[in-house]
Amino acid sequence: MIDLLLLQALLAATPILLAAVGEILTERSGVVNIGLEGLMLLGALAGPLFVDYLKYKVGAQMPDPLWPLLAILASAFVGIVVGLVHGYISTYLAGDQIISGVAINLFAAGAVAYGIQAYWGVAGYKQVPDWAKADPYVVATFALALAVFTWFLLFKTRLGIVIRACGEDPESAFNMGVDVNKVRLLATVAGSALAAVAGAYLSIAYLSVVTKEISAGRGFIALANVVFANWNPLLAIAGAYIFGFFDALSYWLQTMGVGRYEITRMVPYIATLLIVAGVMGRAKPPRALGKPFKRE
Amino acid sequence: MRFQTASAVNIAAALVMAFAVGTALMWISGYDPLSSYSAMLITPLSDWVYFLSALAFSAPIVLTGLTFSLGLRAGLFNIGAEGQVYMGALGAVAAAYLLGGPAVLPLAFAMGLFLAVLWSSVPAVLKIWRGVNEVISTIMMNWVAYWVTIMAVSTVFANPLQPEESVKVPEPARLTPLVPGTDFTAAVPIAYAAAFLVLIFLKYSVWGYRISVSGYNPIAAKSYGIKPERAVLVAFALGSVTAGLAGVLQVVARPPSYSLARNLANVYGLGFDGITAAMLGRGHPVGVVLASIFLGIMQEGARHMQIEAGTPYEFVKVIQGLIILFLALQLLRK
């Protein structure tokens, strides 16, 4: 039973890891995006909706394994679009990044509830058919590889130095000939795409359902993980696993019949609060995080 | 905070752009934008009963809008109103469970506000002692509140006669409609009065001034001898009082049920509506009231939209998100 829990924790960690790695990339460039929760929601809806539309409304024929891949790409595309909006507001328009992030969360909460109702005509709950489902272990492996890749990118390549410079000292980066706003925009787009893919993972791989509350705070847990990981993708793997463990534990306790399910569902949130309170002191965010860069 | 400099023109532009994008979204998803908008914005103004109902919708939004505004004043992004509303409602239900008769009313306020303040003290203390970002901590507290309240309503406070809701507030303790045949209860004047009190507090009290100074410039605040930590604590506590009040009123002053729905339907989302109201109202209590009336009209209108044009109720939330997005975009371009 315990080994099953540890394996489940890996699956529960995956959306938190994907979103956190994306957010680390974004925040290292100097942009904060607290809209992860909303991006997850939009991604969770976009994938199943797109392949359903393609199959039943357009009548497209396709070899079976392609459907989930298309669903993930559709989610990523929605993430890119929202990332462009948030990134553009945060960089070129020098808007308020926190307010924009809140707007993404509010918009997504409405849009997903509206979308489920408008497209499927059901109130807030739609099962994902088998043909659209992806293997969660494949996505989990991809997420782990991506975390390692992002660490390599950020700390071992020239591009990584450029990205981090934009988040630490945009003035100097600019003086070295870096187009700060462009780097930040692209990092935000990449991060948003990953958060949306995390949502697609929830709906088509992990939970096999689209609901209007499918992200259930995981976007904010991913934000907590960014702090926990001290903006390091490798540490984010450990963090995601710890957060994922408590998420899996809550379901595990439920199946074991320990306590009422309402109590077990509180476990991940209480654990997140305690973990964040425990590590907060040593966290060091990028120095220019959340500050728009304006050329003098 | 920066958003206070957003001008009325900015707000109007944000509204227009949000409704324009909303038109496109509605058109793509196959609904009629014209009849939807007319049902959403004009129908509530066409009839007294509808308009009073819109005002009834505005009351809890004013209160949660004040929570968010008070946080902003102190430089906080407090999104915990949602959970504190649940706690307020839970306190009111507990009072109805424990007592009978008119004594339930004062106990409902006492227990609801106590639970809400207790709930906000966790993120406040974590912020002050450990520097925990309030965005993360308040969201986590919202989810814990969600499950605590659902559990309480489906076990101890369950209504044996009606499984979909909690025990009811006994009749003598209810705030009944001031205008018969409508939802317009004392909750509306109470909420607006709360906004007025918050305005007085911010403008004329020492603590209101301390909160504003430490939110505007924590370093300057220290040199004036103001402790920003205490300003944070006061802003959190006072914000939870208004949010908790919203929760209590949703139980003691909301006909016809006077109870808490088991799926929390009559309190769900009020905290997030408050964020929209606070942003639209530029954090000013009077602005928050005006914005809440606008949102109340939209919510009342959404019911008509669903009936008249078939457009799902949730569309209102889409518009709210878009409004804030465009407000964010405008802010620094003063």
UniProtKB/TrEMBL annotation, chain A:
It is a multi-pass membrane protein. The chain crosses the membrane at residues 35-54, 66-86, 98-122, 134-154, 185-208, 220-246, 266-283. Pfam families: BPD_transp_2 (PF02653). It is found in: Cell membrane. The keyword Cell membrane applies. GO terms for molecular function: transmembrane transporter activity. Its main location: membrane. InterPro entries: ABC_transp_permease (IPR001851). It comes from the Archaea. Keywords: Cell membrane, Membrane, Transmembrane, Transmembrane helix. This is ABC transporter permease. It comes from Pyrobaculum arsenaticum.
UniProtKB/TrEMBL annotation, chain B:
GO terms for cellular component: plasma membrane. Keywords: Cell membrane, Membrane, Transmembrane, Transmembrane helix. It holds the Pfam family BPD_transp_2. The chain crosses the membrane at residues 7-28, 48-72, 84-101, 107-126, 138-158, 178-202, 231-253, 315-332. GO terms for molecular function: transmembrane transporter activity. It is found in: Cell membrane. It is a multi-pass membrane protein. The keyword Cell membrane applies. InterPro entries: ABC_transp_permease. It comes from the Archaea. PANTHER family: ABC TRANSPORTER, PERMEASE PROTEIN, GUANOSINE ABC TRANSPORTER PERMEASE PROTEIN NUPP. This is ABC transporter permease. It comes from Pyrobaculum arsenaticum.
